[in-house]
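Hi W., the cytidine-5'-triphosphate complex you wanted:
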Amino acid sequence: MTRTVITYGTFDLFHIGHLRLLQRLHAMGDMLIVAVSTDEFNAIKGKKTTIRFDDRCDIVRNLRCVDLVIPERNWAQKPTDILNYEVSLFGMGSDWTGKFDELRRYCEVIYLPRTEGVSSTQIKQSVCALTPT
Ligand code: CTP
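Structure:
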């Protein structure tokens, strides 16, 4: 039986922390689905992305470790996605530890350690600091 893994995220300014997370999740199953947050959902979360949704999807979809990209449109879709795609494992970085434990009624839930020292926010701040005013 296929072991399907799913994760959710914005993946703005795609960086090494994103890649390491997706590679580790890919190694834990046979198929990796990545739900990429839409620009509208990011606005609800108070996040403004630098790279638009279509381009963030295109980057993630073309990684060797990713089998399928779907849109993340709201907070409530996770149980439906897990059931529809027959997901065995839901995985997120450790900044989300404990936040999705209720999904354990549908599948395994795992929180992986984040890659130290990099985030989309930090990249934006570094670029801003370099830009002459
Ligand atoms: N992630 C990770 N290591 C990092 C950064 C992110 O493992 N250094 C993981 C997050 O834990 C999450 C996924 O990558 O499961 C997508 O995270 P996202 O929020 O898109 O990336 P961040 O760089 O954390 O973005 P931001 O700074 O906007 O919060």
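The mean pLDDT is 97.

W.
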